[in-house]
Amino acid sequence: MQFSRTTDNQLAKAWMFAGLLAVFGCNSDPLGPSGQYEVESKADIFTFSALTLEDGTQTFSYRWDNTGTQATVITTDGISSGSAILTIEDDAGTVVYQDDIADDVDADTAVGISGTWRIEIDIQNVTGHFTVSIWKKT
């Protein structure tokens, strides 16, 4: 069995490359330089909060367990530019809700099939903040 020996020069090049990746990787945050978000997902309750977005662009997709056949959607927004499209599909994959979060419309979804629902939030060039709360309609 033969082993190759790594030289100090090779190690220095590897560390320099890793450093360059770290520096340039920091500038590629799709949510913007100060983008942050928080997610809470448990049976019958889902919350997504996007904070301090600066020209953020990203699509988020989540699975959410809804034991009911309908949900209530509450949005609060402070979006100054861009769009944030919320799409909700029931367990069968049927779209039961779709709207731009920036419209700040609170509504109920259409009636769907209970089970694992899919929630997608597609943000495009968003500056500002918003929160989406979804829960089983009783």
Helix tally? 1
The CATH class: Mainly Beta
**Biggest sheet layout:** 7 strands, antiparallel
Counting structural domains, the number is 1
CATH topology: Jelly Rolls
**Which regions have little confidence, pLDDT < 50, spanning 5+ residues?**
1-6, 9-28
Describe it:
With 138 residues, the chain is mainly β. The protein has one domain: Jelly Rolls (Sandwich), CATH 2.60.120.380. The chain has one helix and seven strands, in the order αβββββββ. β1 and β2 form a beta hairpin. The relative contact order is 0.24.
Task: Summarize the entry for a quick read.
This protein has one helix and seven strands. The protein has 138 residues and is mainly β.
How would you summarize the topology of this molecule?
Elements: H1 8-26, E1 36-42, E2 45-66, E3 71-77, E4 81-89, E5 95-100, E6 107-108, E7 115-136
Sum up the structure in keywords.
single chain, 138 residues, mainly beta, Jelly Rolls, 14% helix, disordered N terminus
